[in-house]
Amino acid sequence: MVAFGSFLPWIDTAVGSVSGARGAGLWTFYAAMLGLAGALVPMRRLAAVQAAVFAAVAVAVPVWQVVHLLTLVGMNGWVPGPGLVLVLGGGVLGGSAAAQLFRAPATTMSTGPSTSSRTRRD
Question: Where does the sequence pass through the membrane (predicted)?
Answer without folding.
Answer: 20-41, 48-67, 79-102
